[in-house]
Amino acid sequence: MSKANTAVAPKENTRGRVLFASMIGTTVEFFDFYAYATASVLVFPALFFPNATTINAILSSFAIFGVAFIARPLGSVVFGHYGDKLGRKGTLVASLLLMGISTFLIGFLPPAQGMWTVLAPTALVLLRFAQGLALGGEWSGAALLATENAPKNKRAIYGTFPQLGAPVGFIIANLMFVLLQTSLTPEQFMAWGWRIPFYFSAVMVVIGLWVRLKLVESLSFQKVISQDKVLKSPFKATMRHHWRPVVAGTFIMVATYVLFYLMTSFTLTYGTAPATEEAARAAAEAKGKVFDAAGFVPGLGIDRPVFLTMLIIGVVFFGIFTVASGPLAEKFGRRKFLIWVTVAILIFGAGWTLFFGPGQAAAMVGLIVGFTLMGLTFGPMAAYLPELFPSNVRYTGSAIAYNMSSVIGAAPASFVAIALWNAGGGNTVGVGIYLAIGAVLTLVALFMTRDTSDVDMEEFVE
């Protein structure tokens, strides 16, 4: 045993390597994910559903967007299995490769024309599914990389670094789309410009792989190995003995997921939709489509590059308050802190139409408020969810909870919000109610869960 401990000591990851590796990997993964999300609003409806009405094309694009969320729980089981059996490092490298390759290939898909009328959307579905598989395993591994290597009383602070990958990846992806849209003609952007972010992902993947290949396993997992506590089937053990924290963790994340996809995918669709029937008619004619007056639903009518810039400003607040949430979660405890943030999300949902309805200035305030709340609720999750599970099922348990929540909270969010906006004839009050319901579900889960700030992650093995 003493010999084993002597061998382990020099293999500890340095603080800088842990923080950078946990953030760069999730930055790459979320960049890839958001590149698709942005393209699903700006490009894919016209590219892959050219014969559908405007609203049906958008709904079809978001339906494929949701395919990834169906794949994510499967990815959590597959990657969680190997992460708890073979280690965090190799699993993180595999998830990054899968995400990068599938995203890179999306950039080569042709428009849905001729022989590709069916094949192109089908290929998009398959690649989107692969993205979901990859992200299903990525988040939990990155969260464990940060928190299992964190000093005592700093897990929530270290845990904010993989969470930073979300706003950083979003900003990079959307800055690229803004620059491309402002520097290219609409014809050039639709023909080839939209593909550049997908090709660029290959460069980011290489950077992420270079950093992650230098990692060593965390002491928590090394202890699982040394105590011979590696399980034959982490999934079975998780669902048999730890199903309660899986259920709790799933609903703890619901409000976070609903909020995020309303603030990004939905607001981009709503904010850039024509505000008047005349503007909608002109936009349809410019695309060579027949205008469907019966299907017209007014939005804010903000130019896409302008609204993307507004989103980027909002996401800066997301990043700032993700970092701020770590020390606050350490000071007040994860559970207590998240309860107050979730109450604020509920109030924000109740007042949704005060921000999204009056115009551009109000929408900008709404984006700042919404993304601030997003940072505060998202930041502590990388510590809270893993702390619910022992080391030998920690990858599997936290991954399943996180990704099952994506099925409930994230997958339907954009689709449901667009349907509610459509049913309301342009009024978004239903969207706010939808967010408030998500917050209530999260509050119930938080009140039924204990605080985990005092958990010793290295000693917590079963």
From TrEMBL:
Q: Which residues form a coiled coil?
A: none
Q: What is this protein called?
A: MFS family permease
Under SUPFAM superfamilies, the record lists: MFS general substrate transporter
**What is the membrane topology noted in the UniProt record heading this document?**
Multi-pass membrane protein
Task: Keyword check for Cell inner membrane, yes or no.
Answer: no
Instruction: Write down the PROSITE patterns for this protein, in alphabetical order.
Output: MFS (PS50850), SUGAR_TRANSPORT_1 (PS00216)
Tell me where on the tree of life, at the top rank, the source sits: Bacteria
**PANTHER family cross-referenced by the UniProt entry:** INNER MEMBRANE METABOLITE TRANSPORT PROTEIN YHJE, SHIKIMATE TRANSPORTER
- Transmembrane stretches, start-end: 18-37, 57-79, 91-109, 115-135, 156-180, 192-213, 246-264, 306-325, 337-355, 361-379, 400-423, 429-448
- Domain Major facilitator superfamily (MFS) profile: residue ranges: 18-453
Q: Where in the cell is it found?
A: Cell membrane
